[in-house]
């Protein structure tokens, strides 16, 4: 498993710090304090997302997909940057919000609105640690498996999620498995992919046993 996310966030932390130093040099130290704070939070996330630590609980996401107010405030530079980036990325790339793997099983990215969900009132398996469950989804069956982007859940989490998904499919309810950005079928079936893809395949095969 690569260090992609940790390195990326560390680069962002460095960029925030350089901006802070730049503005401070010209006497805008007070105005630049938010940049310093964003840098420190990014460094913290970079460390917590390292494979040797892998601590997605750092962000404080609740089992119901919400974030405590304290976590929202404390990690706001990271949380809101990711939400804005997700929406901008989807707009610029034109990616489909989800892909159907087989009857009743879908995978995709974070659904920021109801129109991005598959049809049929699907049960949702949320594999993100940084994105919230929006209030419009309160009526959907929901399982939260907090996972850093590009990382995979723990084996026990995978087993639990597969069993949960199988129970939903036994009732003929669609299942939507989502991480932050993955939406293409080829990413799901690519054995070199990481994060959601590998264990989504496990869900796929389990549902066909």
Automatic annotation (TrEMBL):
It comes from Gossypium mustelinum. Coiled coil: none annotated. Gene3D superfamilies: Protein tyrosine phosphatase superfamily (3.90.190.10). This is Tyrosine specific protein phosphatases domain-containing protein. Keywords: Membrane, Transmembrane, Transmembrane helix. The keyword Transmembrane applies. The chain crosses the membrane at residues 6-23, 30-53, 65-81.
